[in-house]
Amino acid sequence: MSCFHQSHVLPAPVLTPDTYSYPRYLLAKKTVDARALNTCVWRHFLERLSARGTSLRVLEVGGGVGATAERLIAALEARAVAQVTYTLVDVTEENLHTAASTLCDWADGRGYAVTGRGAQQEWRSEALSVSLRLVHADLHDVTTDTPCDALIGQAVFDLLDVPVALEALRPSVRADGLWYLPIHFDGITAFEPRLDGGLDATIERLYHESMGDGVHSGRRLLTQLPAAGADIVAAGGSDWVVHPTADGYPGAEGYFLHHVLHFVETELQGHPALSAKALAEWSETRHRQVERGTLVYIAHQLDVLAA
Description:
Elements: H1 22-28, H2 30-36, H3 39-50, E1 55-61, H4 67-76, E2 83-90, H5 93-109, E3 113-115, E4 120-124, E5 129-136, E6 148-152, H6 162-169, E7 173-192, H7 199-210, H8 217-227, E8 232-237, E9 240-242, H9 253-268, H10 276-292, E10 296-306
């Protein structure tokens, strides 16, 4: 069954730890990210990237299942770009297997002549040719023969020691290259409706504490990038806002919410400041709200473009 079936209010799924799949989560959040991305920052990125010529080299780290690759290639189809060499790097093989299949099907559906379905793919259309390479590697081990015009890292630097990561990636980016870093968490998580007794506040505080310095990754990119020698071009909010409509949650966003709750549960399991009973009751209540189509989830994030 496709992750993008047209759903209304989700039936009550029985979700166990074995049910959760990170590639499925990445697929389910495509519609969430699409709403969240800051259009001003995205526009600046497209304008600056497409102005670099008709042949572009793009490196994406933490590329997941290829959602950003789809978004960028689709946008470049309408611009004066003839060739894109796109390298997508991810540390998880399961993500890359999903990306290989998903991207191949996406390109085929847009009318490209596709050669290859695995880690090396060539797409051809009258307007645009794409050479796609999927690489299983840690971003600290990334090497490229030719520095890229743009490095993309979506929702990945909040998991890293940012100065160390920027230093490791710098040789792979042209001296005047672009750094497009969208969807970076910046310190606010909210679940609605609020529960009585202050439990929400406690869980949100402990969850944020578990992130360490990554809890304010978004705002810190605004100083860490200049410290690494890149000037900020544009920045803006890219909040996740997931809420039910009259027809329930859009697409697979119900599953996305279940998985977000699973992240919280996993992170706080056994925390000395939170009883197992309280966490279990909170979790059961929140999952039930997803199943009934009543949970609202908000996460504050920032998009940053530097050069």
